[in-house]
Amino acid sequence: MNTKNYNSLLEDLKNQEHYMEDENEKTIYDEKRKVEALFDRKLVCPVCDSNITVRSVKSSSIRILSRDSDFMIHYKEPNPMFYDVWVCPQCGYAAISAQFNNINDKQIKLIREKICSKWHPRTYPPVYDIDIAIERYKLALLSSIVKDGKISERALLCLKLAWLNRIKKDEKNEKKFMSQALKGFIKSYESEIFPIAGLDEPSLTYLIGELYRRLDDNTNALIWFGRVLSNTSAKNSIKDLAREQKYIIYEQRKNLAEHIEEADDRDSSDKKGFWKKLFNISKQSNA
Ligand SMILES: [Zn+2]
Q: 1 exposed, middle or buried (CB, 10 Å; 0-12, 13-18, 19+)?
């Protein structure tokens, strides 16, 4: 290797090292920033009476980036949704933070029998990633099923699992949980007293319509959006959302109809082309 090549290789390596150092520093800085945005809270588990610590995001560190049409909020990291399920590391009982202490004696007995007896104590790292968040929401869903909690509680957990899978870009699991959330919300709409999952009637009606739309059932989506628009107690903001989503469906239908028309035109001109070619061939063969 000549000196020039050697020097340039050395230079390349140096640059790479710098790059790696920068990347490592950036990762360490990001982790440090996330840890600083979190705080621990001490409480007593209502199921096993152990003293436990749960982690949350400081409200001063919560930054909203955007909102989706099904009420999902996108946050700058750390995402508070990742920390909104509290899990007792000692017994495995899990629930959304606001519902954690909302459990009666009969439900405690069921959780002890069916979850605590099979649970192996588990520790989590200081910062939760998307897979840990999904695992914790699934534990909350399991606790909710075992304690026979409200249908709307399970529906909301399924909706959040759909949202977490949206962040993960796992469309198959997003739709799977969304479809369960939709079934649960329809049942709770028919059987529970409002507010349901923190939503008033027009907002839940809209959400059901929007979940239908996202699951490609436009016919049912339009029925539920129609209910929002004819509800005299619905606020203008929720009516506007229903109108916007209705408009999206009509636009999609219009585009689809235009595509079909174009395809029909193409099809008939292809046929004309075929006859034209056939005629030319015949002429040539006659010549
Ligand atoms: Zn416990």
A: exposed
